[in-house]
Design brief:
Number of strands: 5
Low-confidence stretches: 26-47, 49-65
Strand content: 5-15%
Radius of gyration: 21 Å
Largest sheet: 3 strands, antiparallel
């Protein structure tokens, strides 16, 4: 397991200022894999359609898609500085903040592109955030020391500290709010 680098909100906004997307590099001819002949041992057939298809596969995503959604980054920054809500165990709160930072750094852009929202990830009940697990986003349910291993449009795969694998399915959380939206007036 790699060491976690603490998320610095001010550095994030300095490093991730909006920039125009870069144009994709043109494909090189030697990388063409068009046609079944490349699998049969025969010399590959290079066609314009094959080169165009390969260029589309090899094109990097635009710069805007490589960074965390701004609302999530700002919300996570609030989560880092807000006091722990009443009834939320200190270890669970610390785990949420740590897991949230790792997720923002590594998977937030991909999750947003796949349609995940803040309550799918950081969701909780507005009054009983720790007790009501039916409204919990997957980060509130992650065991201590676990890491997100993969994310798809419908699931997130989590690797536990003991080497096990958990899968959390995306579902509707009506009435849930993101953890950074909690009313902390009754904070400990």
């Amino acid at each position: 397991m790699s060491a976690f680098r603490k998320f610095d909100p001010s550095a994030y906004f300095q490093d991730h200022a909006p920039t125009p997307a870069k144009a994709a590099n043109p494909a090189k001819e030697e990388g063409n894999f068009s046609g079944i002949s490349s699998f049969s041992g025969a010399a590959p057939v290079r066609t314009e359609a094959g080169l165009a298809a390969f260029a589309n596969l090899a094109a990097p995503p635009p710069e805007a898609e490589k960074s965390a959604p701004r609302k999530w980054a700002e919300g996570y920054a609030r989560l880092c500085v807000m006091p722990r809500p009443a009834g939320f165990p200190a270890a669970a709160w610390s785990n949420l903040v740590d897991a949230g930072g790792r997720f923002i750094d590594r998977f937030s852009a991909q999750a947003a592109a796949l349609g995940w929202n803040a309550t799918d990830i950081f969701g909780c009940h507005p009054v009983k955030p720790f007790e009501r697990i039916d409204m919990a986003g997957f980060l509130l349910l992650m065991p201590a020391g676990a890491e997100v291993a993969a994310i798809t449009a419908d699931t997130v795969t989590i690797k536990t500290a003991t080497g096990g694998t958990l899968r959390n399915f995306r579902r509707s959380r009506l009435g849930a709010i993101a953890a950074w939206e909690l009313d902390i007036g009754a904070a400990i």
